Each structure stands twice: as structure tokens, then as C-alpha cells.
Amino acid sequence: MLRSILLKLSASPGFANWVTSNRSTRRMAMRFVAGETLNDAVAAARSCNNLGMAATLDFLGENVSTPADAQKARDAYLNIFDRIALERLNANVSCKLTQLGLDLSVEFCEGMVLSIAERALSYESFLRIDMESSIYTQRTVELVKRVRAQSPAVGTVIQSYLYRSEPDIQDLLSYGCKIRLCKGAYKESADVAYPQKSDVDANYVKLMRMLLSSGFYHGIATHDPHMIAETIRWAAEKQVPKDDFEFQMLYGVRTDLQRQLVRDGFHVRIYIPYGRDWFPYFMRRLAERPANLAFFVRNFLRSRS
User: What are the catalytic residues?
Assistant: First the structure.
């Protein structure tokens, strides 16, 4: 219930204005967002590298309404790859298709992605296409397959809460696609997604086993100790080397667990978001931690008194 409320609030312009203009909530948001500039993200990535962890940088934004905005986002991603190379960071890039014009035209968006993939390939780097809500899943999978057929520098994300994820993985693996597996952070109906956490977890384990057995290098994205333990157990049982996959975690979440995995000899990559359009991302992170709702209620009421 609390998760549903928070995800609904994420679509409220009034609530967005309050969150982004309130000093306390902005400070809280910066627990999960590196900052509003590329310099902030680079500094965060450097810190991760110094701790033995790789990074993936994401310029926050989604659902652009004009081609010009999509082109600005594309240019920002091209600049990120240039900066990663200049700074010699152990990092790659993640992006959302709606930020690159998917709502405007699939063909237009695909052109944006191809140009970014070319830049990634020129640096022997990698572009991860994030998965958004289920209304975009089919278009995302199809676009990723077309781009992957032209460039090895592109992979995507699969969400274990969707019923369709197993055949999607089989389809994407046939294209040699590297996948990040996560549980999913959007509000979905029971028509398309498992409503029970236990079912989401069970599917996560099933899909993780598929990926680790595929022979490709994938990202297992979770902060759940049970999912991490099961991944480690399965990899050991099937003699999957630690160098053949990585754990991925969010910036600012379970840093203790991140460092423990590094000490245990696993590859760890931290997802580092930055930019001014951080509100939707922050609300999805908050929905994953509903205990923080009391903090928002107190501050919201105080601001209205």
C-alpha cells in the first residue's frame, strides 16, 4: 500500500515541486543521487573505483516531449563517454529510451541509441539500455535487438516481476545480449507482473540461474542478501568463475554490502545517477524503502503549517 502511494505521488506535479524545492528532502535525495552535474557523477565514480568497484553513469531524465530534448540527452551521453575516457574511469553508461525520444518515434529513438552505441564502441565501452514500465517493454526489447545486431556495445535490463521476462531473456541471449537482472521498481498491474514479493523473488532466482549458465557476462542487480547468497551459492555449485559476472547496486544503498562483496573477491558495479531531473528516480527509490514515508509526511505537514 505504501509503495503504491509513493509511486502515485511520483506523478504529482505539486508534490514534485515541494520535494525538489524543500531543503530537507533535497538533502535526503542526494543520498541516492550523486549530484546535478557530470562533475558530481565523475567524482562519485572515482570514489567507487578507488574502493575497487566499477560504475555506470546515468544522466537522469525520461519521457521527453520534443526531438530537441532527445538530442540534448544524446549529446549528454556522448559527453559522458568522452569524459569517462578522459578521466580513465572504470565506468560505462546507462540510459532510458523515453529520454531519447521513444514516445516520439521508435525510428528516431533508435537513431539516437545507435549514435551513442558508436561512441561507446569507439572507446571499447558499453551502453546499458534501462528497462522502464511495462508499456515500453516490447518496444525496448525489439529496439535493443536491432541495435545489438549492429553493435556489441549494447545491452539491456530485465525485471523479474514481469511474467514475460523468461522468454525475453531467451530472445535477448540469442542476440548475445548482456543483461542486468533486477526485480523492478514501477507500479504494475497483476495482469503483467507478479503481485507477491515471494513470486518476484522466485522468478529472480530462476532468471539468475539462466543468466549465469548462459556463458555471457551479466549483471546481477540486487541489495537483497538472500538473492546475493543464492547467486553466490549457484555460481559455486555450477563452477561459474567470479570473473564471469558482477553484482550491481545503487549509489547510496547498502554500502556495507558493496564493500563486503569486494572483499570477498566479487566484481561490483555501482549505478550512479545524476542530473536535475532526479525526482522520478528518487520516488522509485523511496518506494523501495517505505519506512521513509514518515519523514516526508512530517516535513510536508511542517511546510504547510
Answer: 130, 180
